[in-house]
Every structure is written in structure tokens, then in C-alpha cells.
Amino acid sequence: MRRFRIAFSFAGEKRQFVEQMAGLLAEHFSKAEILYDKYHRAEFSRSDLAFYLPDLYEQEADLVVAVFCPDYETKEWCGLEWNAIYGLMKARKVGEVMLTRFDKVEGKGLRGLAGYTDLDDISPAEAADLILERLALNEEKPADYYVSGRHKTKPIKPQAAIPNNLPRLQYFFGRDGELQKIAESLAEDARGWGALIDGPGGIGKTALAVRAAESVPAGRFERIVFLSAKERELTADGQRALGHFVLPGYLEMLNAIARELAQPELTKLADLERTEAVLRVLRDLNVLLVLDNLETLPETDRDQLFTFLNRLPRSCSALVTSRRRADASAVTVRLDKLDWPAAEQLLAEIARDNRLLNEAGGAERRSLYDETGGNPLLMRWLAGQLGLGRCKTVAAALAFLRAAPASNNPLEFVFGDLLDSFSEAETQVLAALAHFTLPTTLKLIAELAEINELAAEHALVALAARALVVPDTEERRFVLVPLVADFLRRRRPETVAVAGGRLEQRAYALIVENGYNNHDRFEKLDAEWPSLAPALPILLLGPNERLQTVCSALRDFLDFTGRWDEWLALETDAEAKALAAADDWRAGWRANYAGWVYMLRSEAELVLVCAERAERHWSAAERSGLTVTREKSVAARLRGLAFKIQGQYESAIAAYRTALDLDRSLAPESVDVAICLNSLANAEKSYGDLDAAERDYREALRIAKNIPYPEGIATYTGNLAALALDRNDWPVAESLAREALSLSEALGRRELIAANSRSTAHALVRQGNAEQALPYAEKAVEIFTPLGSKNLKGALETLAECRRPAGEG
Asked: Per the confidence metrics, is the pTM higher than 0.70?
């Protein structure tokens, strides 16, 4: 009996393609009957190779498949294999040889006379089918004997690409057993939600997850979504940025899943409601989630994420990678060292572009493998030292590794070795980058390092050459991986702190200058936000007074740009900061605005908790001698908002009237009185008392005009327009909405512009002027969409009505 049913001859250039074909063919026979790997030195010596190959192909294989590609002739072993295969053909055993090729490459000595199967435009699955057909014909069976399904233990499924955002793999070798285990965990009848791949850093967890996702049979999932909490990936050539895949927490991952599923509106829901909403969407889909590097998430975020995965609908699955082991309803794949045959292939592939590693003998490469314990990350880094010319031999590179403490990882080792050799400019640049987790502009790096841009650019280029800093394609933005930043903070804390001080001062100036109610400057803050957000942790450690100023300046900006998560976190942290500084008055304001965020999310119970907390802080401030009449009104208003969300309109109206009495006790007419009247009118409108609502809207508008209060004038005019819409008074609604829109545009208030654009469109379309209404409806949707506004649904309905053909109801 022959040892192999099918044997391949190929160059490493096409290893991935052949490996996939071989895997599919092994589904029909057994893995042991398909020869596609290189020959192992354990079986025979190199001097015996020329004698072994003829027997292999003539006596041990039913069908030999030669895979020609541009690299085929350049490889010594391919030449020896071809000599044996060519010998078969000359011995009139052509039927036992199947010639395939890429790029129209021909076998040596055939002179264009042979027939080839071209592989350039077909998938590995299609190629495997052709091989099976050829084998069947050789055995005098029907061509479809193996591919028709009558004699297969498993069907071959076409490997059509499933829509995905998977990153590209640079190298992948071995791990056949792990891939099989993962494939079984993703089967439709699998019990758990998928597989958890864990293991030490650098062992290849991400690569395994990506390869497993790539290998999923067509039709199993309709989409694959890759998300990562990892900023950088270390390769033989240094660090590699993971770009828009980077997500630092549970909420960010949930938001990303929502956006990938074309449900961006879900990102603004409350935490628990957001989770439930995403799960509801997934129930109607077949999605594979690939969640990478979860050990970098805070513990509470990891717990939330695993709770989410445990509730995945059966139609969906997930692959998760983490250095930390977890108790999950999934198959656990413990990833250990790479085995030697796979590691040998990895080093051979790296050596193609690494002269010193290419010159190293087999014994030297094996010592590199043994000394690193088969860790791919360590092997790539040590090979990288050869490639960069730091070390001339494998032994020197290993000595380089042994110089570091046993607990050090490659980044710590390499960075520590280079730290003393950094120039002053390089050190300053690294200290500046230590505060950022996303790519940062050259201009900002230079500013924080207090050097000119040319000097900063030279320093960054030098650091990038050492694989410590990663530039974008245009080399205008740069980033440092978190591990390097952590190391730098430990080794050069003073230098990092100085750069942090500059970052904090710059952020404070920008926030105060462009914040508060300067809506026309919010675009500048939005553009600068990647440089402002990293300054917030530094501000939290600074003086309380400065932090409270930042909270006040950012409040409207964070609200109107939809950054509710950031706003809530800032208000909550600043409340604790104020209490620690015995600043009860400001602690009350921070609790109040935390309640506003919960109000925007319609979380009434938490709004009430914040109102109670604010009242408690302000009562403490009153006991210390401060007058807090206005603050008591604000707390009552916050309770009114919560009651309105709950549909308790009578309680809301009572709360607003209490607040109104307090405000009028301070001044008969004021901004606070106008705001309170508007809130009271909103509750009355929801209660169904439209006459009372109109009375109080108009009184609020009168006061706003007398003060004057431009934002109030625009807001209350728009509310009167919305009230006219409720009464189906389209002409009055149109007139008021156009007036409010003009006022809103003068203020630059985008959410008011959107609301009044929608009201204008609504009034026009109900008067039969759909064509005139359309641009207003489009503008409303355009603004509400990125804000994730709860008003988006109504705007979309109006837009649909504007686009509906005339005569359709």
C-alpha cells in the first residue's frame, strides 16, 4: 500500500496556498496521506536526498503535484524534487504527475509542451477539487468520485472570502492541532460561544486567531469582525501599529461592534441598555467576533466582556485572545511554544531578508530556538538584532538577550539596552510620546519636547530605525507602544513628568480659550481632542481649582459632540476630587452634571441618585456658610427631569414649580427663571396641557429677549415651533421654525440647527412642499447622525416623508 495519496513539490513562496489545499485534501483521506511539508532531517541525511526522492515519488505517492512559481527554480530542494518528478515523466508515468503553476512559470526541460493547471485566479478549494478529479481519473473512477459528496467524510466547502476586517498575517507556521480544535469550537453544533486562546506574551495568539478566522468555511458566518485592545504588535522588524482596530475598553468594543453592524445609534445608549441592544441585533445575524489582547483591559471591563460573550446568541461565535486565563463558556486553547519544524520554517522565512540569519547554520538556528523556549516573539526580536546589525552572530544575539533579567520581555530588554545611548532630543521625544496611545503629530511632539520640528523628525527617524517608534506611511504621525511608555516612566520619571506638564498646560489653555459656550470654536476642540484627552489624567492629579475650571469649560463641548462617556467620567472623577479638597459646593455641581449625562441616556433612577448627591453636597456647603438657593433650584430641576423620563408628569411639574419659586426669589427675571419655565413647559406639553405649555414657553421667550439670553431665544422659539407641529398648525410652525433656525445658525448650535431644520422640513412637507423641505430634512439627519441623538429617528422619518413620491400615503 502506498504511503501517500498525494505529494506536493513547491517553494516556500506558495506555502500558504499549498497548506490550505493540503488541509482540504486531508478531509478526504488522512493528514498522514498528504505530503506537503519539507522533508525532515530526522528521516534522512541531506546526502541521501537524491536517492530518497525517486522512491518517494515513484513508489510511495499515487499522485505528485508540482506547484511552479517564480521561486521554484531558485531553491535547491525544489531542483532535486523536480529531477525525481521529471524522471517519472520520462519513464512514461505522466499520469502520476499533475503540473500546476502561478505566473505562467514552466517546469525546467518541458519547453512549453506540457499541460498545466493555472492557479492564479482560483481558490485553494477549487484547486483541491481539480486534484481530486485528476486522482479519480487515474484510478479509473468518475471525475466527480471524490468531489460529488458520495465518498467524502466531510464536504469540501468553497473558501469564498467572508466579509471581514481581519489584519494581514506576516508569518504563520504550524499550530495544526490548535486550528482543528478552534474549528470544532466554531461549528454550528458547538456548545460554547467559541474559543479562548491564552498563553504568554508573544507566543502567537493573535496570529492563531486570525488564521483560524481566515479558515472558517464559506457560509458559516456572514461577517467576521476583528477588534483589538492592543496598540502595537511586535514583529521581527519592530513594532507594527494596529490602527483603527485599537479599542481600550468594554464600552469602546461594544461601540465598535455596533458600528460594524451598521447600528451607530446604539453607541449613545446607557451601558446596560447598549449591551442588550447589541445582543438583540446579533440575534438576527451570523457573526464571528475576534477579540484580541483582552488582558490589557481593566478587570471590570474584562468581566463585562465575558458576561457579554456568555450571552451571545447561538447564531454567533467568538474567538478571544488573552494572556490571562478566564472561566468562560468556551473551548480553551492553551498556546505553548512553537514546535521546532514550524519554528524552523519561521526562521527560514525571516532569513530571506536577513543576511546574517541566512548565513547562520542549522545548529545556530536551533540554539536560537532552544534558548528562547520556542517563543516566536523572542525569536523575531533576536533575528531583528541580526537584521539591524547590532549583533553579528546568533551567539552574540543570545548573549544580548541573557544580559537582561529573566523577568524582562523583549521590549524591556531592547529599550533598556538603548536607553543610555539616546540623545537628548531622542529622550525628550520619547518622554512626549509616553503620554499618548494613538499616533501623534510631529508638530505636537516637537512642541512638548521643546525642540524644533527638524530635530524632532531626526530623532523620530532614529528611534523608528531601532523599532521603538512607529511612523505612519507619511512619517508625520508617530506612536510608542504602551509597554515602552511604562518602561520609560519607570526609568525616566522626571523627564516624562516635565513633558506631561507641558501637555497639561497646553491642554488647559486650549480648553479655556475654546470651551464654555463658544460653540463656534468647538470644531477646534474636536480637532485637538486626541491631544487633549491624554492631558485629563494629568489634570486630575493637579490642583482642584484647575480641574473644576476644566469641567466647566468642557461641559457644553462634551455634550454637543456626543462624548457622553468622557463627560460622565470627568464629572465623576472631579466630584471625588472636589470632596477630597473639602469643596462641597463644586462637588454638588459635578454630581448635577453627571445627572445630566444620565438624563441624556434616559436613566431616570441614576438621575435621581445624582440629584440626591448634589443636594447633600450643597447642604454641606450651606452649613459652612454659603448661600445655596440657586443650587437647591438646580437640584429640584434635576429631579423634574428624572420624573419626566419616568412619565410622572405631575411630579415633574411640581418639581419644576418648586424650582421656579426658588429662582424667582432671587430675581423675578433671569436666565434661571427662563430655563425653569421652559422645563416646566416641556413637562406640561408631555402631560397634554398644550395651552399651559404655550403660556410658559412664551413667558420664557419674553424673559430671554428682555435679559437678553440669545441661546434661550433660539431654544424657546424652536420649542414653540414644535408645539405648533403638535397642533398641526403647519404655517405657524414653519414661520417659527425658520426664525429659530436663523437664530440657531447665528449661535453655531448644531443640535439646535438640526432640531429646527427638522421642524422646518416637517412643516413644509405637511403643506405639500416636499421638494422645498428635502434639504432641511437632509441637514437634520446629517447633524443628528454623528451626535447619536435620540432625535435622529424622527428626523429620518421626516426625511423619508420628503422623499416619498407624490400621492403615496
From this structure: no
